Amino acid sequence: MAFYYKEVSRTFSEYLLVPNLTRKDCIPSKVSLKTPIVKFKKDEEPPIEINIPFVSAIMQSVSDDNLAIALSKCGGLSFIFGSQPIEEQAEMVSRVKNFKAGFVVSNANLSPEQTLKDVVELKSKLGHATIAITEDGTLNSKLVGIVTSRDYRMSRDPLDRKIKEFMTPFSKLIVSTTNTSLKEANDIIWEHKLNCLPIINDQQHLAYFVFRKDYEDHKENPLQLLDSEKRYMVGAGINTRDYKERVPALVKAGVDVLCVDSSDGFSEWQAETIKYIKEEYKDSVKIGGGNVVDKEGFMFFVEAGADFVKVGIGGGSICITRETKGIGRGQASAVIEVAQARDDYFKETGIYIPICSDGGVVHDYHMVLALAMGADFIMMGRYFARFDESPAPKTKLGNNYVKEYWGEGSKRARNWERYDLGEGSNLKFEEGVDSYVPYAGKLKDNIDVTLSKIKSTLCSCGAISIKELQKVARITLVSSTSIVEGGAHDVILKENNY
Ligand code: IMP
């Protein structure tokens, strides 16, 4: 006879947090949302922690290198989508790892024999006032000078004047070398009252510019997520088919953490994949698995050697798995059960395996509920798809701007591997839709607001860390009538009131 769960399968909207005493030290500026994302032993430091508990979904319409850099700057982590050729995914990873915050590769370069006219044209085309002058006008030759708007006067200088006559020559430039850190570069900028500092390599080629304004921008991101070499951190999704080729390429590109991406992870293929990677790379490669929705699924991954376990089936905003296949579980019920299994396992063994709540976050308070129920971090697709930095096209729909957002199980994604049940390479039916989401502007602006809300809720719950929240949170189920009471009601809303 089939097994019947006694509890109804529930989702975040069915719960609320009941406030606790807010101590005087519970103020938003004291709240830390730092959280572990991979396995660690009791009394040991987690090998990887993220500074805000958000990771972006392993999806074509969400996580490319551009979004990864923006999110890592804010303290979170992206998992670059795996449904693309190996070289292209590895290239995205390496673009994140090689991105040097504050170090800008010059794309406005001319030679000393060119003229003021060329300077003016390049400036209006690219919008930069700082132009590198190199022997042959490319970055593959010696830096011989720099031109900025201080070097010429449009009203007096003839347009055919040669650059070599008015540039600031190399001999008068203050430059530094490629082993300079951003902090050192900034000190030089301040000491010499510069607007920009050229960084050269041992052949006197221009490697980067460091601009005064970029250092200030860098200081605005105190939570940025950096590895031991001060590079942005990034994850990547893999599948259970080509991992023997894909993983070495991603590791070579410098990926920090991997995740096997599948709609239903409780499968022998996933265990095989994780075991293989752990045998090949031991602990030097961190890998999570998923998705599961219960204790059995969690323990299956523990035995396979996973560094974290991802939780959630059928709750994603673009997901129609529950409708098409009739499988899944309310996201809240899934997180609650898996968190309990994680805590029991930790008590028994002293090994902590973080869990990630994946999909179904609609409101910011859902994030706090997921954390309070035991999630260590949260994966989101829809949330990030709305931002400037996501790879999806922005278009106008009626009077509003929207971004496109499509599921990995939609025809558009052609991601057969994610739904593969071992029998081949085409999708017989869709498990996801192609959709629009309201355009919401810059990632950082939105994350700042979300974080303010989350920190404020933690304070109301009497907690200043995620761990503390998980200990003290008091959570209540809500009736459908009290959900109505929770929104604006019995008033006539003014236009633009949201
Ligand atoms: P969202 O944050 O609610 O938009 O959910 C994002 C999550 O949905 C992803 O991290 C995946 O786990 C899941 N997902 C992505 N594409 C599909 C799909 O096509 N069908 C079902 N689930 C999907």
Structure summarized in a few sentences:
With 498 residues, the protein is of the alpha/beta class.
Folded structure, characterized:
The chain has 16 helices and 25 strands. The chain has 498 residues and is an alpha/beta fold. The chain has two domains: 12-100 and 226-479, Alpha-Beta Barrel (TIM Barrel), CATH 3.20.20.70; 104-216, CBS-domain, CATH 3.10.580. It has an eight-stranded parallel β-barrel with strand order 5-6-15-16-17-18-20-21, surrounded by seven helices. The protein has a four-stranded mixed β-sheet with strand order 7-14-13-12. It is globular. The structure holds inosinic acid. The site of inosinic acid has 23 residues, from strand 21 and helix 13. Residues 57, 59, 263, 316-319, 321, 358-361, 379-383, 407-410, 431-432 line the site of inosinic acid. K(+) binds at residues 314, 316, 319. Its cofactor is K(+). One of its GO terms (molecular function) is IMP dehydrogenase activity.
